[in-house]
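dumping these here so i dont lose them again. two proteins, back to back, each one seq then structure tokens. dont judge the mess
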Amino acid sequence: MSGKGKTFMILALIAAAVFALVYFGITLTSNLGKSTGEITAEDADKKLGKLYKEIKVNLADPVKGQIDLDPADVGDSLPDISKFAVSVENTTDHYVEIFSSTEKSGAGNDGWLNEVASAFNEANIMVDGTAASVKIRNIASGTAADYIRSGKYIPDAYTPSNELWGEMVKAGGIRAELVTRRLAGNVAGVVTSQKKYDELIAKYGALNVKTITDAISANELAMGYTDPFASSTGLNFLVTALGTFDSSDLLGNQAVQGFEKFQANVPFTASTTLQMRDAAKTGMLDAFVLEYQTFVNAADLKNGYVFTPFGVRHDSPLYALGDLPGQKQDILREFAAFAAQDKFQQLALAKGFNGLNDYISEQPPVDGSLLSSAQKLWKEKKNGSTPLAAVFVADVSGSMAGEPLNRLKESLLKGQKNLGKDNSIGFVSYSSDVTIHLPIGKYDTNQQSMFVGAVNSLQAAGGTATFDGMVVAMKMLQDELAANPGVKPIIFLLSDGETNEGHSLDEIRSLIETYKIPVYTIGYNANIKALDSISAINEAASINADTDDVVYKIGNLLNVQM
């Protein structure tokens, strides 16, 4: 071959190599950051349309049901108090029963009050000439307040995480006398990644709730917080945030307008602290709320996070409830003094309490009725100007026959009072095929009546094509988004978690990821792990309905998300 020929071949090979590098470079970089299942929106729409055509979809005739226009009754949805475990039993006939928040009456580092109570009961302390003891019931502060305020069950005493709940109990007409302001020290705070913390300090000079709300309002910080109806830290953050907009009038126009702007940029309100922390692990959040005692005991937060305290202290006040006999009041005072001993305060320190003792709240006392109004404001304004569109997907396969389907119906019929009239609702059921009972529409009185009628009409039979039901729900939501681009889509899946027909999760996972639709799952006699895996795709919550408190839990879930 001549020299020119060789040169031409070399140039051709170089060109081919360059082309290959460029081609594969473009291909590789175009896929950076995507999971193996993630696809483009255009491809997702094509795939969704194809899957939808493969499913037998029935359209049910609308059936109206009788609706109850009375507001949701929290007391009616609460289970028997025996649902909540007694963590320390009384050892004498003369005793006081105390509702205790879970961070101090649980297990391990969360069991400080149990150890104190057990030691008190073993000490054979005489009160008014009679041996005395205490009984501790492990129950979250917000749930405990619901029992007390509704009158469903009122113990002798109550030690929530903070004084906000005590004020709400008083506002509910229950006598609550403060025995001690502090059993063990704790504070609420915002946990921020070190990188984001440094950025905020560089811009604002300090980090506090005011600078945090400013940063969120300016869309400079992605932060999540917990349900202020159930969470002590969530309630504390809500009233503290309102105070940054107008400390003189937490519910005035200035505070409400500031809160709406701030809330519009909050990406995540979690039903539980666990759900919020799982979302933070994915990198979805720059910051989230937490108690200090939990923060110092969390191995995954040891490095790379900063804790900034806010709001009222969480010092576990102790209240005597109702008109207690003198002897019971004396037992409570003896117990508070017993817990204040240095050895038990050192034990509290070892379990993460009594840190940040120098922190003094700048939050002035808040009246209990004002706190209830703040919760209602949050319910009305938490989604800002973004309307929600939700599709409920109910499993009516043969395996749901009997008690599971009865519980599903009860859950929806009672929970639907929390849905909110500004939202849009659709309803689908599935067995071997899928039935659309209720196309998506505003949840006015007419839609509510048809929702109730559809739920009451459900009957169980056939196979379980769970993911066919999901495909139909996603198609309904995508059609709704096309007509109303501003809505936020949500799916609530109620099932036993077992799929034996139709499409698989692997076939639709990429659609859930691409559309970023949170799927909240509620399991009845369920394969909970299967449902957890669905909810985990977009950091939604999963509820086990095989419990006596399912109606209460679902009511809380819908209250937070809808």
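---- next one ----
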Amino acid sequence: MSILNDLPILSIILLSPLLGVLVLSLLPKHRSNWMKTAVVVTTLVPLLLSFWLYVDYDKQQGGAAFDEQHSWAMIPLNKEAQTSVSEFTFQLQYALGIDGLSLPLLLLTTLVTAMAALAAVHVKKRWKSFFIWFLLLETGMLGVFLARDLFLFFVFFEITLIAMYFLIGIWGYFNRERAANQFLIYNGIGSAIMLFAFVLLVSTAGFRIDQIGDQVNFIYSGSYSDIFRNMADPAAWVNMTPEQLGTINPFQMTDTMQWVLFAMLLVAFGIKLPIFPFHTWMLKVHAEAPPSIVMIHSGILLKMGAYGLLRFGLLLFPEQARDFAIPLAVLGVINILYGALLAFRQQELKLVLAYSSISHMGIVLLGLAAFNEIGLQGAVFQLVSHGLISALLFLIVGSIYERTGTTELAELGGLARSMPFISGVLLTAGLASLGLPGLSGFIGEFLSLLGLFESLRWLTAAAVLGVILTAVYVLRAVLKITFGPQPEKFGALKDARLIEAVPMIVLLAFIVLLGCYPSILTDTVQHSVEGLFKPLLATRAGG
């Protein structure tokens, strides 16, 4: 047995950024170099541990060996109804866990955050406050992918919202406050809908019955495992008929309630993804947030929406998701075509990449709508791949803006002469974004479209048109920046410094690695898809 099994490895990964916050709070404000070094070292700790965890992860048995669960409190509930239950309680708990769906995104989070920490060393003001919010943001993101309790998930989700609000509003560009407010409003509405859905889930399916002899204790909690089990079959595991269980738990999950909850979760996480037409806030963030924060936002935070939709939407409501497959696929095609067409019309590089993210998230929706193993693998692969590619592209955008003071396509050109390394990485990242074989972008798109082709061929054909448009707008932007005539004022620009080159090389290396050896990721995801979806679907079908 690995030494990791003897340690609370998930808690160590989750709480390690908070140790960096403590160190930063003790450092004097004028020691900016010490602060930057401390932040980079702090982000490397969860990165190394998540790598270790990924290597040690048993694909056959899943991540049960690493799960952590501790009860914080048992709150008594008053029940006037005469039942055979001795006690009703509500359980607050600290529950962490991993599987093949969350582990790749956990590794993506630690990797992109560490690279963004290197990109953030060029922050010009209020270093201590920036890096404290930066590490709090990482804690929230890690918690989202590790939490196995609905309310714990919600708390970490809100931490990311608060941290992003300040990081955008204080350290962004000219319209930063407007972008931060728009971010807060849209995501706040999504969070409110999500919280309401979680409360309904706990009230209807978040229960556990502890029966010792004649004493029956009925426990409500936000435990994901309990809800998952009860959604599959709410009575069989406690040897009670649905009628008997109904006398104890009056909040039964009806078909109508399932559709209402699925719709609420689709809207809540669709805002975060984002799904058209809930996308306008994202454009402001991509344009106004500092480069290191946009790396995290495009590389990780957008993936939280897709992860939530997969974890709480498709897994808990497979029948509703399957019946909603065509509308979900249509939304995916709209995302793809809308994002691609508007990306082609943009004259500003950051907006090209922002609309590109909308288009690529449409590919994820197609993989989810396929509702089969290939499509779901493609959706998760696309999340990881786009996270790496978009983080790399916005890292390059930050380097270009620092040197030229602009990201307008009309004002840029011929940068390959003065910045051959940055231009070469930009060209390779662009090729990955348009889905060139041998790079990670191709695998995610191919698997998602292949999965959808089995059931919805006509929508797959429409989505392929968006893939073609992607090649058009990516090459248009990249070639305009790197080749052609170079303005005289850009003739003396310097190429990437070491602190910029390192994250570029690391992110590019992973893009190539996943493109050449996709089984590194697909094997891990496949076993979780089989383990989570097949038993649930078989149980529902048998019922």
